Amino acid sequence: MYTIRKGEKTDLPRVLELVKELALYEKAPEQVTNTVALMEKDGFGEHPIFGFFVAIKESTQEIVGISIYYYRYSTWKGRRLYLEDIVVTESERGNGAGKLLFDRTMLKCLEDSCTGMMWQVLDWNEPAINFYKKYGADLDGEWINCNLQADEIKGLLGKK
């Protein structure tokens, strides 16, 4: 029913659509400021910083899901694969595309000799939490997420 393959530059407009669909689901559509041009540079430029897989519905050849990942380094564990987003379009959820994407991403973790895979899930996203529980994932509620936006950093550092 689905084919999973490595993402290509020509997939990026659809990838961004799915990212925006996820942001709407997570009640934060205004937070998406990324563009296809930035994704092209960051994923296919001289020094790519992320990779992705796509799930293609075989009957329509439409991209119905994505898994976006990158690498991080843990001083305690070493090289880790970080799953930034896994998104399956609403009409295809529950049909197996998410499992195929997650499984392929786990395989990528092993192929690249990572010591493990990490990701986040919103505490109210019960379908996703239940999905990850099926894998026996450790859902650690102890850590607090922190971030600063570039404009905030500029202000703090007195830069323009």
UniProtKB/TrEMBL annotation:
CDD domains, A to Z: NAT_SF
A Pfam short name: Acetyltransf_1
Top-rank taxon, per record: Bacteria
Keyword Endoplasmic reticulum annotated: no
PROSITE patterns: GNAT
Family: Belongs to the acetyltransferase family.
Name of the molecule in the record: L-amino acid N-acyltransferase YncA
Annotated source species: Belliella buryatensis
